[in-house]
Specification:
Number of helices: 16
Order of helices and strands: HHHHHHHHHHHHHHHH
Distance between the termini: 141 Å
Strand content: under 5%
Helix content: 55-70%
Radius of gyration: 40 Å
Oligomer: single chain
Amino acid sequence: MKHQMSSYYELSDEEKQQSLDLFKKHNGNLIKVIRELWNDPTEKGTTARGRAIREFWIEKGLKYRTKVKERKVKAVAPPPPAPVITESPIKTKPINSKSDAKAFLSIEEQDFIKRHYTPDLTKKEVAKIIWPEESKRRNFFESEKFVLMSEFINNEFDQINLRDDVLVEKYSPPRVLSSLVKKINKIVMKEFDAEKLSMQDKKCLEKLLSYLAAPRFIQVINSYATKEARELFESEYIRSSWDKPDLTADELNLYINVCMDYVNLREIEIQKQKLNQMFDETEGQNDLTMRLTEMLKTKAEEYNQCTNRIDKMLAKLNGERSKRIQNQHQRNASIISLVQLFQDEQERKLMIQMADMQKKVVYEEADKMEKMSEWKARVLGISKNDAI
């Protein structure tokens, strides 16, 4: 029977009280309590209901026992030393059944995986916790030990970390403005209408189409195995670049790096939360507690390094683009001034030309009048009859 890894189960008040009563009855035996509480002989501590009981007891300060711990083994033999990997490929020893994997793991290792494995952890991360020194060896994750542990997890749990399985579906960038507008409206909270875009917005979105079709962007987004990681990477990339139609190729690569670190931050935070939960559940197990402490310290350092990289890259991007825009404004201002001067000079010449033309017309009319006999006669006061 595989463990059902449902995400969450909320205990009712009645179930909480019954679990406390059964805790006393069975002396803190988790497996017996949950199986009697729900009358289900297949119930385990890794199911949603089992984890809910564990968390409730931890909140109450109760120390529970599992079925494995109930066995009174005074001195549990330490895990067998890792077999010397003598370049014997795993393929020569196929795993035929669940029992093959179990036989390779100690009781403590099996119990640890059953109690603490969730889809938040990858198999590599589990191996690093169980075998902190061996996992540092070269090609350890291709070794028989790791493959057998992976097979044990596959057989024991219905759901595994999606990062352990690669998606075959490739990312397809939007090709037309109408499909891109839907993404933009969802990601940056706009209300664009593909048929009523301003010239500036249309220019930005058309440029964004080319950004999303960039080879490196497609290569990076296809490297993510989960839908959540892809959506986060794409949304941050769009949010950062959609209103910047003047980005250079180098700046686009930097924005891709920034978005990769945003995804890394999310992954590190998930791992930190899981490690903290495991740390709380392993109280009193000094060796394991020390391992988890070291891993938490490492994850905290990775988180800080990631945030520092993001800050530095964004500062560089914003600074360089700001300088470029400022220089462009200065060039534009110089051109505008020249145009204005040219227009002013042309205006002055035109006004002078018009004045000259008006003056010329006046002179021409005066000449005509001067040559007119009738006009002269009238000026002298001689009428037609007087002249006759």
